[in-house]
Design a protein that fits this description.
alpha/beta; Rossmann fold; GMP Synthetase, Chain A, domain 3; nine-stranded mixed β-sheet; five-stranded parallel β-sheet; 17 helices; ATP-dep_AMP-bd_enzyme; 2,3-dihydroxybenzoate-AMP ligase; acid-thiol ligase activity
């Protein structure tokens, strides 16, 4: 695929020789017995045989639409049976899903279409009060497929009905790009992460092994399925690979998840820190039986040690900290780790082939235990963002190490403690976005002359977003409600909206003339 940076041949040969890479394809991952329950979503219950039948028909129906191996399509579906069927049918056919979040709006979706030359858009019938159909009509794609009432568009049911179960689609190669994941990014434009069949299968397979997934696993997918964490760490795909059951729900709210845990005897779920704290508080007063829970994974943002100690006690299960990135590298605390490592670290690398460097601002390795930027490369860490050569020149070292932008300490045990970020990225409750992206939208407001966005520490969300605004001469500063309405009109996802607005006359500058964001944040502290 154009715009994809492959692993150098000597690394590919090594990963194959060491057994990390095989010939398995992402669409063939489900591995449960035909009669076992594979998927539960709302009123839908599918055995492995029923899921496979729907996927085979959908894959052939996509071909009947005119989609072909290597085509890119935008997938914006909630946690549902439709997501699982569409995703597996696409990757089985070699059609590349570009995974958008349900919270994304017109601005983000149009950018993804332009970046990928997308030929299709897969969407849900509704998303609250957001008019998805109006957006779909404005997109430059050949096909719109709706999971639900389609109006003038094609339904997913139509696609499945048009497909033959005995048809054999064109098979992708293990080295082909299987899926494009969205990076949190640190620039104003979206960055897409190409994951191949062989590296992503290894990602989910090795994760499932470390986490002890098996046929008795019942995995509750409550975080968005388009997130790498919920999809393949080990997530939905890891549970299906091991023959377990996946229960999908579009929210982490205890009001909806706790009844499902009781009814389906859920054994494991993945949460971001704010949701984990919410579950811990709600568990004390719930009437639902949560005794089936054996493991809760927490990642997406750092979990404070004091919370890491209280969450598992409140839920009556084990805690696993997970620190990783859609770009690749994953770190897990292990079941046999002592409590001080489970509570005080973000885990150690998944793979023996993961290479880790912790360096100072000049690129020199720091002494063990000291803070530095995390660099990494390995069999499931990308070698370049999709169609981003200029950014790749900055994001990777000449010898292929990815500059993560995370500040960490590495302990003698190999466990990492995350200490912060070098890049200007906001991590609000596990949803990551670039400060520069929001600044660009704010600068378009007629009353704003300049804007600087910073993240402020928050005990629940990890970070809240504060926008410092310099109003135009003679113009009163816009209120927070007005800014949110302005951003909504520009098609910006709500999780990127500022939580706080501060009007200032000018920005403090660093010695080299850049906006001193640390100085701005210090004003509020």
């Amino acid at each position: 695929m154009d715009g994809f940076t492959p692993w150098p041949p000597e690394f590919a040969a090594r990963y194959e020789a060491e057994g990390h890479w095989g010939r398995d394809l992402l669409g063939d991952v489900p591995g449960g017995a035909p009669g076992r329950t594979a998927l539960v979503a709302g009123d839908t219950r599918l055995t492995y045989a029923e899921l496979d039948l729907r996927v085979r028909r959908a894959a052939d129906g996509l071909t009947a639409l005119g989609l072909r191996r290597g085509d890119r399509v935008i997938v914006q579906l909630p946690n549902s049976a439709g997501f699982a069927v569409v995703f597996l049918a696409l990757v089985r056919s070699g059609i590349v899903p570009v995974l958008a979040l349900p919270a994304h709006r017109a601005g983000e979706i149009r950018e993804l279409c332009a970046l990928t030359d997308a030929r299709g858009y897969f969407m849900s019938e509704t998303d609250g009060d957001f008019d998805v159909r109006r957006l779909a009509r404005s997109l430059p794609v050949d096909h719109v497929v709706v999971d639900g009432d389609a109006g003038e568009f094609t339904t997913l049911a139509d696609v499945e009905a048009a497909g033959r179960a005995d048809s054999v689609p064109e098979r992708p190669e293990p080295g082909d790009v299987a899926v494009l994941l969205l990076s949190g990014g640190t620039t104003g434009s979206p960055k897409l992460i190409p994951r191949t069949h062989r590296d992503y299968v290894y990602n989910l397979r090795a994760s499932a092994e470390v986490c002890g997934f098996g046929r008795d696993t019942v995995y509750l997918a409550a975080l968005p399925a388009a997130h790498n964490f919920a999809l393949a760490c080990p997530g939905i795909l890891g549970a299906l690979h091991r023959g377990g059951t996946v229960v999908m729900v579009p929210t982490t709210s205890p009001a909806e998840t706790f009844p499902l845990i009781e009814r389906e005897r859920v054994t494991v779920s993945a949460l971001v820190p704010p949701a984990a704290l919410l579950w811990a508080r709600a568990a004390a007063r719930t009437r639902h039986d949560l005794a089936s829970l054996r493991l809760v994974q927490v990642g997406g943002a750092r979990l404070a040690p004091e919370h890491a100690a209280t969450v598992p006690r409140a839920l009556g299960c084990a805690l696993q900290q997970v620190f990783g990135m859609a770009e690749g590298l994953l770190n897990f605390t292990r079941p046999d780790d002592p409590p001080h490592l489970v509570e005080g670290t973000q885990g150690r690398p998944l793979s023996p082939a993961d290479e880790i460097c912790v360096v100072d601002p000049g690129g020199a390795p720091v002494p063990p235990g000291e803070v530095g930027e995390l660099l990494t490369r390995g069999p499931y860490t990308l070698r370049g963002y999709y169609r981003a050569p200029e950014h790749n020149a900055r994001a990777f070292t000449p010898d292929g190490f990815f500059r993560t932008g995370d500040l960490v300490r590495r302990l003698p045990s190999g466990h990492l403690v995350v200490e912060g970020r070098t890049k200007e990225q906001i991590n609000r409750g596990g949803e990551k976005f670039a400060a520069a992206e929001l600044e660009g939208h704010l600068l378009a407001h007629p009353a704003v002359r300049d804007a600087a966005v910073v993240g402020l520490p928050d005990p629940v969300l990890g970070e809240r977003t504060c926008a410092f605004l310099v109003p135009r001469d003679g113009t009163p500063p816009p209120a927070l409600a007005a800014i949110k309405e302005f951003l909504r009109g520009r098609g910006v996802a709500a999780f990127k909206f500022p939580d706080r607005i501060e009007a200032v006359g000018s920005f403090p500058l660093t010695g080299v003339g850049k906006v001193d964001k640390n100085g701005l944040a210090a004003r509020l502290r």
